[in-house]
Each structure stands twice: as C-alpha cells, then as structure tokens.
Amino acid sequence: MAHVRKQMISFFLSTRCNLRCIYCYTHKNQNLKKEHQSLDFNFSKRGIDDFFRDNASRHIRFYGIGEPTLEFELMKKIKNYAYKKADNLLTVELQTNGFFSEKVAKWIAKNVNILWVSCDGPAEVHDIQRPTATKKPTSEIVERNLKYFSKQKSMQAGARVTLTPPIMKRQSEIVGYFHSIGIKYINVLPAFAPIDDNSSTVFEWDPIEFAKNFLIAHKKAKKLGVWYNTMCIVNFDEKTRHACRACTPNPHLTTDGYVSCCDFTQLGSEYSPGPLQQLIYGKYIPEKDIIVYDEKAVANVRSRCVENLKKKTCSDCKYIYNCAGGCLGQVVNETGDILGKCEKNCEIVRYLAERMELNKKLHPAFHS
Ligand code: SF4
Ligand code: SF4
Ligand code: SF4
Question: How much is the pLDDT for 27?
Fold first, then answer.
C-alpha cells in the first residue's frame, strides 16, 4: 500500500527521554519552557475533533521528540478520548524505545494495535547505540518487552532499527536476531544527520553498501516469514502521487502548540528555526480552543507531488511513481527545498528498484 495511505493523527507527547542514543537528532537538550515539555490535553482533543471531522481515518499514533511512555497518563487520556469519538473503529499506534515496566507493557498490549519498538538488534550492538541517560544498558528490558509483545495475537509488533556504519553489513544477522525472539516486522533506516550537527561518523554511510546488504537481508527475511522494510521501498508496491502522509498533509501535534505535517519538525520556530518550519501548518490558540491552519503552508507541502517533481527535480527518473521524491522531512532537513531530493536515497531507490518487484503485491505492513 502506498505509504500515503497511512493517514493518521500523531501526538508528540513529551520532550523528555530516559535514553541517550548516539544518533538522536531531536532537540531535547534545548532549554524548553516547562509548559512546552509535554503535549497539552486540550490541544490534543481539538486536534482529534478536527482530524476526525476532515478525514475518514480513525488512526491515532503516539510518538515524540522524547519517549512517549514517559507521559503515560496523558497517553491513556488521549486514547480514551479518541476511543469515545471513534467507537470500535479506532486504531492505536505507538512508536517507543521499549524501555518501560511490565505494568506499562500490559496496558500497551491491551490498548495498542500497531507497535514499533526502537531496538538495534543483539545486545552488544543495541547497548552501545541505545544506552540510558546514565549510560546503563537497555537491551535486557527492551528484549523482554519485545518477546512479550511478539506473543500478543491482537497486535502487530515490530522493531525499528537504526543502522550505523559498523552494523550496515550485519543486516542479515539483525533479521536472524529478531526472528529468534518472535518479531515479524522490521523497519530499518540508516542514521539521519541532524541539520545543525552532522559531525559524528555515525552519519557517514555508503548508500550502495546499505542497499546491497538490505536486499540480502530482505530476501533472508522473506524466507523466514519476516517483513524487512525501509523507507526507500515503501511505495514499491503501488504507484503514488505523494510519497507520504506528510505531503497531504496529516497532523502531528507538537508540545509547543503547533501542527506539523512530519516527524522531522517536532517544534515551532521559537526552538527550531530554519527550513523545517515549512512543515508547520497550524497553531493552537488555547484561549479560543481552536487550531488556526495556514493554507499557504498546506499548499506548499502538497506541492511535493509527482507532477511537480517531474518538471524539476526528478525529471529523468523512471521510478518516480514508486518513490514520489521520498521522505519530505529528510529532504527539507538536508536541502531546505520542498521540491528537493536526497541523492543518497536516489542511489538506494535505483539499486533496489532494479532488483525488486514493483507494483506486484501489496506490502504486508506500513512503515512506522
Ligand atoms: S529513544 Fe529516541 S528520543 Fe530518546 S534518545 Fe533515543 S532516539 Fe532520542
Ligand atoms: S529522482 Fe530520486 S527522489 Fe526523485 S523519484 Fe527518482 S529516486 Fe525518487
Ligand atoms: S519523516 Fe518522512 S516518512 Fe516520516 S512523516 Fe516525515 S516525510 Fe513522512
């Protein structure tokens, strides 16, 4: 299913995190005002009302600049409010670092339909890349929770893996690890460089090395009944005008009261000025309890469609309807241009599109 079919409202619940991953690109170190560290519940309710009014989807998702389960009570309140509004049609998705108690895990098993746990594979890799704030290992608890979720029949539980140069060639091994603990869905992405600091070597990876090893791991996973996915192939199963929900757009509510269209823009201009502000298209006015939408910003993100990309950036690309320009957030982060492209991703798309089936069979799951 083209990735744009994944229509949903996302809630960035918290700016705080209990982990300190080596590639974290979020802005948690900034001096955020206290009132901007957690999502406002009234804003969340207004966001749900507007989204359910304007979109047939009843899919909600919890994510964040920090770890969403650190706002556990707020997550429960938002879920309950959405459930009342959507009746039995509600789909709940959570993207989390998986470092939480058994009590939290039990609530998730009961209330979440689609779960993505960030885990980078076997303990010796995961613990280097994803330690706690006090530099303690996290793999034991994350693995315990993943094993528990893999046994829940009512839930699609998957792993979200960030690949750094030392593990780029170990993708097959990573598939084997997740298969051994019962996980059937894996999304991998090489580490994205933040716009303001790309000095770390974890962001220096070769696209063809990634693509080659991805393909080997994808084939191995298929034999094992595991879905091994990455952003560059999300539209290989179906032609599309837009790469992602971000371009239609879909709301992502920020802790400082803005509506963003994308996971990449997690705060308004006070904290994160620059080109990513193009992806903000609404602002909550608490005194009036309304969200004011910016039509110009909506038109701007919608302009990232194949018709416009064909005229300019992607004119010579034969895979345009199975890529549609790729991840909007990454492009704006790296080029500043709504109609730009990331050359590294083009190399990956071309390498994989030449070797994988296009438009034959729908993927079994959406990307996270
Ligand atoms: S869990 Fe997410 S937000 Fe927290 S440090 Fe890791 S990458 Fe950053
Ligand atoms: S040129 Fe690159 S970004 Fe554009 S459609 Fe082709 S692969 Fe995608
Ligand atoms: S980060 Fe990329 S895939 Fe995610 S919402 Fe933004 S454009 Fe879509």
Answer: 56
Residue identified by tokens 């070769």 is: 206
Question: Which residues surround ligand 2 with Cβ inside 6 Å?
Answer: 309, 313-314, 317, 319-320, 323, 325-326, 341, 346, 349
CA 114 – CA 304 distance, rounded (Å): 28
pLDDT tens readout for residues 64-83: 999 999 999 999 999 999 99
Answer yes or no: is pLDDT of 211 > 90: yes
pLDDT tier at 199, thresholds 50, 70, 90 = low
Coil, strand or helix: which one is 215?
Answer: helix
Residues 6+ apart with CB under 8 A from 48: 9, 60, 78, 81, 82, 85
Look at ligand 3, atom 5, and give the residue with the nearest C-alpha. Answer: 262
Summarize pLDDT for 218-263 with one digit per residue, the tens. 999 999 999 999 999 999 999 999 999 999 999 999 999 999 999 9
Q: What sign does the dihedral 238-353-319-349 (CA atoms) show? A: positive
47 touches 251 (CB < 8 A): yes
Determine contact, residues 8/60, Cβ cutoff 8 Å. Answer: yes
Average pLDDT, the chain: 95
Tokens of 39: 């999502």
What is the phi/psi pair of residue 65, to 5°? -70, -25
- CB of 334 shorter than 6 A to ligand 3: no
- How do residues 320-363 score in pLDDT, each as one tens digit? 999 999 999 999 999 999 999 999 999 999 999 999 999 999 99
Residue whose Cα lies nearest atom 7 of ligand 2: it is: 346
Task: Note the helical H segments in the chain.
Answer: 41-54, 72-86, 102-111, 123-129, 139-150, 171-180, 207-224, 295-302, 306-311, 328-335, 343-353
What contacts 120, CB < 8 A, 6 or more positions away? Answer: 126, 129, 130, 161, 162, 163, 167, 174
Per-residue pLDDT at 312? 86
Decide whether any atom of ligand 1 lies within 6 Å of the 26 Cβ. yes
Residues in a beta bridge with 91: 59
- DSSP annotation of 152 reads -
Any residues with CB less than 8 A from the CB of 108 and at least 6 apart, and which? 69, 94, 96, 115, 149
Q: Please, what are the domains in the chain?
A: 6-368 (3.20.20.70)
